[in-house]
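hey m, so remember when u said the tokens were messed up on ur end? i reran from scratch. heres the input so u can diff it against urs
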Amino acid sequence: MTALQLFGYIAAATALQILLAVGIAVLYRRYRKPAILVKLTPARVKGAAWQGIRDFRVTTRVFEDRAQTQCSFLLAPIDGMPLAPHKPGQFLTFSLPVAGNDAPRRVVRCYSISDVPNSEYYRITVKRAAAPPGLLDAPTGVASTWLHDNALPGTILQVRAPSGQFILSPDAHTPPVFIAGGIGITPMFSMLKAVLAERTEEEAHLFYGVRDSQDYAFKSALKQLSEKHSKFHLHVVYASPGTEDVLGQDYDHAGFVTLDLLKQTLPHGRHAFYICGPDPMMKALIPALLKWGVDEADIHRESFGPGLAALKPQGSETPGAALAIHFRRSGRTLDWLGRDANLLDFADRNAIMIESGCRSGSCGTCETRVISGQVTNATKADHDIAPGHCLLCVGIPTTALELDA
């Protein structure tokens, strides 16, 4: 063997060793990388809820009613990570870049998730808020108008994790009765689909009140559910049926969802009532249910807009001395007499403008500094309240107050 041949064998062996080392390194990195991800980010891989803001992309939008005032938006996280399973009935909190009069500004709004949990997307359904009847020159809903006009496929929205206490009761032995007015159908649709999927042997009723067939959202989907599930009973109520709306075909009852209708329709026995709709409906129906003898623990409700309906009937204010509530920035001092469910309702009734979102103690939008005095919470708050602050949407004064509002 010559020296040149020996050198060639050595060079070939060295090259083979280098190639083998490179191959092992590539294989190691390929199979090691997922293990590192699992170790460093187990919460994200499992789809745990996130802290703060997360960016979502609108992937699909579709109108749910004939009038095209109620639009569903499918939202997928742009980071591609799985979503935490929300509880049916919960909502998402949005920070929306709505343009103001002088400069762009952001508003916070909460919208119910209108579908059962899945790991890929959320769906919300938003009604374009119109001007009040007789006030056509009044401004329409700022956030809903922006979403309808601007949230096209590809739009990025900033979203906080699901929250809210308007969820199904863990007592699976109490038949649910869902009562929805208008866009109040959105959390009900999520809860209803969950009940029909998980409690197949349980009776379930949905009373859905709308103006007419133009406002009937999820019509095809609800019809399919009623045909598929024999224990699901759908009751559609039109307040003002149109000339083409046929009783018994397009709707089941004319008028409004009332206690008399419930008495005539529901079987005897205990039920869990889930109610979501405009404030007039809530204020009429909830006291009537209590007077009928329904236990307060069996009434679950969520209202939207100012004036969250209290469970207590009107005229049940707590007796005692009036408490002076001073709103420093607004420059007004008003007497709290116990007529309102919370300080936010109190401010709304007295035309003091305070930014709010969920109105249930979850989003923190109405968090306000307490300059002096004491506030207690009427209901449990999900939001972590900063020291020296209160959430007006669940806060009730126990002494005279001065608020930085």
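this time it looks ok to me. The chain has a mean pLDDT of 84. if urs says something different then somethings off w ur setup not the seq
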